[in-house]
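Student: I would love a firmer grasp of how sequence relates to backbone shape in proteins. Thank you; the sequence and its tokens follow:
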Amino acid sequence: MKEIILNPSQLNLIKSKLISRDHKRLFAIARYTGQNIRAICNLKVLNLYNEQGVLMTHIKFSGLISGVHFFPIHEPLKNELMIYSLENFVYEDWLFPSSVKKEKPIVPATFDKCLKTASKKAELEHLYVSSKMIRDAFIYELYKSGMSINNIKEILGITSIPEILTRISPEIIDFRGALQNIFG
């Protein structure tokens, strides 16, 4: 089966069909950081905002295999986060609180259900959209722009080759690796 990579217009369409401000904010963080959805769901307000509610320059992801990881808040992400600003936030709370289990964050499966609903409204249900596909689109764009696999791993705070790259074109990975060994 051919691997499907969501393009920017598909991502925009899906985002436009999300209803909740929290889900739109979560989508933006996933789209512009490529981080694991579980790590995003487990963000606390203080991982993005200071005690005065001002957006910081980096997102602090913790609980990843590689430990604590800081990801810069670049312009597209900053613009999205400004649109979906926090309302009535308490800085020690979860950024994405569960509406079902008080004192807990949203679970990735809940966000995936929202993505499924949004993709159906966007008439993209045939793509079987998931949070992993948002991450894959980010990774693919980095790779397509010429970023090395090692740099992608460092940026995302991961230790192995992103799975999407091995599914898309293993020949290109081997070829680039060989060129890097020869000329790098």
Observations:
- Residues 108-121 form the longest helix (14 residues).
- The domain at 1-184 is CATH 1.10.443.10 (hpI Integrase; Chain A).
- The radius of gyration is 17 Å.
